[in-house]
Design brief:
seven-stranded antiparallel β-sheet, homodimer, Vanillyl-alcohol Oxidase, Chain A, domain 3, Uridine Diphospho-n-acetylenolpyruvylglucosamine Reductase, domain 2, oxidoreductase (chains A, B), about 40% helix, FAD-bd_PCMH (chains A, B), alkylglycerone-phosphate synthase activity (chains A, B), alpha+beta, Uridine Diphospho-n-acetylenolpyruvylglucosamine Reductase, domain 3, FAD-binding oxidoreductase (chains A, B), 19 helices, oxidoreductase activity (chains A, B), five-stranded antiparallel β-sheet
Chain lengths: ~550, ~550
């Protein structure tokens, strides 16, 4: 045993935890109304592992011996379960494929180095053998960055960073921590919290993603408005390349030419293996609050988020859901008792009498941190803006509930697959001036795609991650495919997903704000950064990896040579 | 005439403006005490232009015809004055060389394209002729990025962006402006201010540097704590490469792989010609104040700046000078009258009675912007921190004075050269935990270098640009060389400059926070970003510019092939 924890081979998260609607009486009617699926009908659970046909490992004896010599016998795995766990990320296509037992190319071996020196030796051995090396962190990628190219003839090695999970050092005088790349969110936060510090990085995948994965995909967290995206948080890096190690010391800022740090960020394994990083850490804040607000319309909510971003206030979280996502959130509520049970209906009644169309109402969460007097100052500024845009404050209760439940959302996709529906996400970022059109056109594109497929689909959206010049829009979509055949389901999925991604490009938004490029979004890379920009990126990859040994197939579109 | 304004061929800024000590009675005694130079002795003015021996242009007829066809006769200059203006930046070595008439390699032609299409044609023509292309903005570079390699045998073309000086578009709904790369600071701020907007970027070079130059060197401005470094401000780009144009649309954030935007930032002409950028712009603030404070010691000032950066306050400017720079600032004061004349001595008297050692006192400026109530909130937070560290508030008066005079400083180097002293700057950034050692060791390194040279030198420093994990330290040094021979003066300059830069590296700081690499700092690049990191950068440059046509010689150390 390696001691490294993994997610389910067939789905999100850990065995024994799953999404259930048993305690959410409003959900079944909601789902029936929106996508015509009966949550109470018998579902199809994932297959048994033993039913999978796993292709044999093609690991040659020489490389096997070299790997075992390097990391030790117990840290080289060639059994089917380990190899299958390392075959896919957790994108919707990954989930459908693994449930279908679709395993055209599985890593031939999984290696668990225990330190950077072992990583170096593994990288050198794989490149010397002209193999393919795929770094693996928490396995939570949803852009197709982890899957070996189906036609890959060379030996494929999955390099699992799971043993490199320690906070090595905290520079308390600078607010910096040196952390190994394989540390999962809870691992590193527990170690930091024990010393009074936090990184403050909370992506939805937090429990099952690693520091190295965050850096390699340009992750962003719920609190990025305060703590920054991972690109801001990451100050220093160590990255293993064939025959050498890039060492970038932690610097608050520098003008030392084109940023190598910003080349490693988002490199998805194509520019080597990140082994550790220096990251900004902060004292656990004195006070922390997430307050819920309600806006009469999506336009009012967006306008308020924009005005907050321009204001003197600097909240940690700015998030607003569209009417569909708000309705979905309300359908997810557990039954409340006593006063709480009455508060909702009473409030809604009051709002209706004030002229609100409740079906258009939009739920918002704003986060605050700092001294009590600072929270007061910030909440006063935000409160005025909310009021100006016709919104009302719901209070701390719903905010705290959201904060507790935020990491549970990804489990829903497996639940939907059980009952025969496909659900996934696409997120982007664009200037404030483009957001309303981007939103309307993308929802329309999803609905047109559903019509084209002749299915009853649903799409919802929230805004999060506000910047001076724009914000992230995060779309979630679900529909019951009109076929049981997995390959055809995937085709139908792509009709919807492509419509959404194409809408991003057509509306001057990026292909992804924080999920990376992978193979899923590579098709639009040239539209995003221009063909000449793609040339520059391809030239960089080729210069570092002339043999295409480092996670080939990700980042660049298929027709590109590198 | 091209209509493009240039700085003096021999020094900083425009003809008719020069530094004078006539209205600063305390300066001459201060300079005498610190470096033993008599400001009232007759100086040596710069030489006359006609005394220069300018090598003839090597521009061939074919390329000349092609350039004239492209941009028009009047926008192709081959006269000596134009070519000399485009030979050097304004580093100390540049200034000594030009005064000495040292012109080993002068651009053969200066071209002023009027639009991006002309830029493309010029770039293609120069590369087709295997020439060298050096983009030129305001000519204020002080790291040696603008000077043709002395031994360059190929035709050298200086591409002056000065005609591309317009704000093309303001996206008011997003807070973004599209601005041509050749716009000088005042040009673009005037155009923005007229519409109620500001970019807020104020480097010391503001009046004589361009947007394209800021981007190409990773510039930072006085107000970067609020507005961000140019790397944060720059959201979209257009960059001309041979045969193509990189187009990066303005995005608040993106996870589209290794950041091409962050490769262009700091590229110093080696990755093509920046023609325009989308930048963050802000409404001209309601209120703007710079308040001066005084700390009893440097350590107290640094500690206060650090605590402010960790606090709930977010001022626009955080700056503190060491005791030497504080003394220099006081020596630069004009004689005051009436009450003001008495206020200083009275205050100093009070402080001495409180136990201050006034020779250790450190002057600080903190900037605030926003609504009146916000300024009050922020000043209260900062005020408490200042008090905690033993500091006192001096008020708005000195702050406003500093704000008015901040762009005059670079003129002093020419004034010092007139009287026979060399003065220059070196700046860096490092984590907060390293700053005190970095400071002490760098001052010691400068003093050791003076001792080695047997000269009486002076070094001073300020902290500016605070980040979560660290800050910029900006050193200014001056000494009278022990020789009149320019080449020997440059050698002596390098003894001091190298000692300072080496101290940066030895104390875990970067080679430059915002002046770029150029040729002057390239020697330490491998120490800064590691040899493997330098490999990655070199691979990128080679892949984009296999013929070494784009500003070769900058960024990489001399022993590197690319």
């Amino acid at each position: 045993m390696t001691g490294v924890k993994h997610q389910k081979w067939w789905g999100w998260g850990v065995e024994g935890i799953a999404f259930t609607h048993d305690d959410k009486p409003k959900l079944a009617p909601f789902v029936m109304e929106k996508i015509g699926i009966d949550l109470n009908a018998p579902g199809t659970p994932p297959p048994a592992f033993d039913d999978l046909k796993v292709p044999a490992s093609q690991l040659g004896d020489d490389l096997a011996a070299k790997l075992r010599d390097t990391v030790g016998e117990q840290y080289v795995e060639t059994d089917d379960h380990s190899r299958v766990v390392h075959t896919y990320g957790k994108g919707l296509v990954d989930l459908v494929r693994i449930r279908a037992g679709d395993l055209p190319r599985v890593p031939d071996v999984v290696v668990y180095p225990g330190d950077e020196d072992q990583v170096r030796q593994v990288v050198d051995a794989v490149v010397a053998a002209d193999g393919v090396l795929i770094p693996f962190g928490g396995g939570s990628n949803i852009s197709g960055s982890l899957t070996p190219p189906p036609a890959e003839q060379r030996v494929v090695v999955s390099l699992d960073l799971g043993r490199l999970n320690r906070v090595l050092e905290v520079d308390e005088a600078a607010g910096l921590a040196r952390i190994q790349a394989g540390a999962l969110g809870p691992d590193l936060e527990d170690q930091l919290n024990a010393r009074g510090w936090t990184m403050g990085h909370q992506p939805d995948s937090f429990k099952h993603s690693t520091l190295g994965g965050w850096i390699a995909t340009r992750s962003s967290g719920m609190q990025s408005d305060k703590y920054g995206d991972i690109a801001d948080i990451t100050r220093g890096l160590r990255v293993v390349l064939p025959g050498k190690v890039i060492v970038l010391r932690p610097l608050p800022s520098t003008s030392s030419g084109p940023s190598v740090r910003e080349m490693i960020l988002g490199s998805e394994g194509r520019l080597g293996v990140i082994t550790e990083a220096w990251v900004n850490v902060h004292r656990v804040p004195e006070n922390r609050e997430i307050i819920a607000y309600l806006f009469p319309t999506w336009a009012a909510g967006i306008a308020a988020m924009h005005e907050i971003s321009e204001s003197d206030a600097s909240p940690t979280v700015t998030r607003v859901s569209d009417a569909n996502e708000t309705a979905f959130s309300l359908s997810m509520q557990k039954p409340s008792k006593g006063l709480a049970a009455k508060a909702g209906p009473i409030l809604f009644n009051v709002l209706e009498r004030r002229g609100w169309d409740l079906s258009a109402a939009c739920l918002s969460y704003i986060g605050y941190e700092g001294a009590e007097s600072h929270l007061k100052h910030e909440k006063a500024i935000v409160g005025k803006i909310v009021k100006k845009h016709g919104g009302i404050k719901l209070g701390k209760g719903p905010g705290a509930l959201y904060d507790q439940k935020k990491f549970d959302t990804p489990y829903i996709r497996d639940f939907l697959l059980d009952i025969g529906a496909l659900g996934d996400v696409s997120e982007t970022a664009a200037p404030w001036s483009k957001l309303m059109n981007l939103y309307a056109n993308t929802i329309r594109a999803a609905n047109d795609a559903y019509d084209e497929l002749g299915v009853k689909g649903f799409a919802m959206c929230h805004l999060s991650h506000s910047y001076h010049s724009g914000a992230c829009l995060y779309f979630t979509f679900a529909f019951p495919p009109s076929t049981d055949v997995p390959a055809e389901q995937i085709e139908q999925y792509w009709v919807v997903k492509k419509a959404i991604q194409q809408s991003f490009i057509d509306n001057e938004a990026t292909i992804s704000h924080h999920h990376g490029v992978g193979t899923d979004h590579a098709h639009w890379l040239e539209d995003d950064i221009s063909p000449a920009g793609t040339d520059v990126m391809a030239g960089l990859l080729k210069s570092v990896d002339p043999g295409r040994n480092l996670n080939p197939g990700t980042l660049l579109p298929a027709h590109r040579e590198w």
